[in-house]
């Protein structure tokens, strides 16, 4: 059997799907209806500018009203309006978008750029919350008769001549029982603030009382008047030219977006019209030294209509810590506008934002290095994360990525720092060693030892530095990273230099056995080394590799999670040239030998913040006894 034909789709079958499943969140019906009203308003303005509408424009604001008694919500515009025929064309034919048709018709004349709608389905979102919907409309066409359309959510409608006297349209929603929340003023205001805060046409919702003075001098009288409340800012900052704006404007707009945040460090104004349209402002916020991946700080708009705060495809992941606004009509959205769709424009916009951020940071570093350094504590996290996740960003950022020297209390670029330490911190294999600390207060004894050898120590204490350290070793030629407490100072940088030991091999072995019995800890690998007599008598270190793997496991290092559960394997190094070693060997009482060894061991634990509980109490008691 062979047969060809067309698949039949009936409106009575698809209509319930549109009403219930087209939009993931029912509150967006208001966004869609207000967006349609904005389109109608922008169309009449465009026709007036072209001379195709010669009547008075008058008040072109959009008004939202609630009538609790009648259980209705009204969206009223003073836009282009519709005739009965146009209602049949644009409303009765699902997915026939009047906005798309208008843009196509007038694009050669340069008009229609501000039109929002493209799908023609948005109007039907009204039926998600309404049991009945009415449209009252009067077209801008001379001699047009008003039209009145009514539908109860089925596939049947009624279209009659209406009684509307003013140009424009009024959509009346008879709210159903399940959606009575949209008859509450606070709920409607919440939705309008979310989606319509920056629409290009004034949106009126509610009224407020104001007191004015009439007359002058002693005869002046106060009078209370009622004024409509405009809930949106029709000309948000990103729609203006950067040349016309001051720092104060950007800071005030930031406060408008994030009322309870500290002032931003600086910002980037995006303004691109080729090969795609993109405007917006991205702010670098002040952040504490912790990784707070807030996913809802950058807001995505399309022609000033809020779309989403899930912008991971548009904005590179490492810039998700930024705040601000991005607006682009070229970002492809699905029918519900809820999700971004994979598209070459999205990738281009993503790359462009990365480039703009890198250029801004580079420019700030070159022109205002001192200011850049002052901001490093906050912006360093962005930059390091970006360098790890984006090779192109790394190529630009390596010239302004900074390392802070604890010894010098000074910032260096990567190249500057290599030059600064290479003479004294190059090992026998020609590798330049960067020595770093993560907690200077706790690692002070090790930092002091490093300073005695004229080694420089940098501070790397951000949440992502365990990964950043690995990246630097991979990217920087012949460079090795060592944590300051990863080994005894003489072994941090292997220069193939051996200090002369005052102990014989037999004495070393005897000393090692005393410590093994006193410590009785299988996680300690014990060794006796010839170190400077000024160094600590006993040192405990966790090898660099083991420590780094465990740090990465804690911060989500891929494939390293098993390291977090492995027991620590420490190195215990006894300084054979310290006077404590000689004192233990000279002591003939075995118990006193062990007590001295235990005291040295506990001091080593204390220097690594590893002594606590009963062991700490015993150490204090033993120390008091030794002072008697």
UniProtKB/TrEMBL annotation:
<feature type="binding site">
    <location>
        <begin position="97"/>
        <end position="98"/>
    </location>
    <ligand>
        <name>ATP</name>
    </ligand>
</feature>
<dbReference type="InterPro" id="IPR036890">
    <property type="entry name" value="HATPase_C_sf"/>
</dbReference>
<feature type="binding site">
    <location>
        <position position="77"/>
    </location>
    <ligand>
        <name>ATP</name>
    </ligand>
</feature>
<dbReference type="InterPro" id="IPR020568">
    <property type="entry name" value="Ribosomal_Su5_D2-typ_SF"/>
</dbReference>
<dbReference type="GO" id="GO:0051082">
    <property type="term" value="F:unfolded protein binding"/>
</dbReference>
<dbReference type="GO" id="GO:0005524">
    <property type="term" value="F:ATP binding"/>
</dbReference>
<dbReference type="InterPro" id="IPR037196">
    <property type="entry name" value="HSP90_C"/>
</dbReference>
<dbReference type="Pfam" id="PF13589">
    <property type="entry name" value="HATPase_c_3"/>
</dbReference>
<feature type="binding site">
    <location>
        <position position="32"/>
    </location>
    <ligand>
        <name>ATP</name>
    </ligand>
</feature>
<feature type="domain" description="Histidine kinase/HSP90-like ATPase">
    <location>
        <begin position="25"/>
        <end position="179"/>
    </location>
</feature>
<feature type="binding site">
    <location>
        <position position="337"/>
    </location>
    <ligand>
        <name>ATP</name>
    </ligand>
</feature>
<keyword id="KW-0067">ATP-binding</keyword>
<dbReference type="GO" id="GO:0140662">
    <property type="term" value="F:ATP-dependent protein folding chaperone"/>
</dbReference>
<keyword id="KW-0547">Nucleotide-binding</keyword>
<keyword id="KW-0346">Stress response</keyword>
<protein>
    <recommendedName>
        <fullName>Chaperone protein HtpG</fullName>
    </recommendedName>
</protein>
<dbReference type="GO" id="GO:0016887">
    <property type="term" value="F:ATP hydrolysis activity"/>
</dbReference>
<dbReference type="InterPro" id="IPR019805">
    <property type="entry name" value="Heat_shock_protein_90_CS"/>
</dbReference>
<comment type="similarity">
    <text>Belongs to the heat shock protein 90 family.</text>
</comment>
<keyword id="KW-0963">Cytoplasm</keyword>
<dbReference type="Pfam" id="PF00183">
    <property type="entry name" value="HSP90"/>
</dbReference>
<dbReference type="InterPro" id="IPR020575">
    <property type="entry name" value="Hsp90_N"/>
</dbReference>
<dbReference type="InterPro" id="IPR001404">
    <property type="entry name" value="Hsp90_fam"/>
</dbReference>
<feature type="binding site">
    <location>
        <position position="36"/>
    </location>
    <ligand>
        <name>ATP</name>
    </ligand>
</feature>
<dbReference type="InterPro" id="IPR003594">
    <property type="entry name" value="HATPase_dom"/>
</dbReference>
<keyword id="KW-0143">Chaperone</keyword>
<feature type="binding site">
    <location>
        <position position="82"/>
    </location>
    <ligand>
        <name>ATP</name>
    </ligand>
</feature>
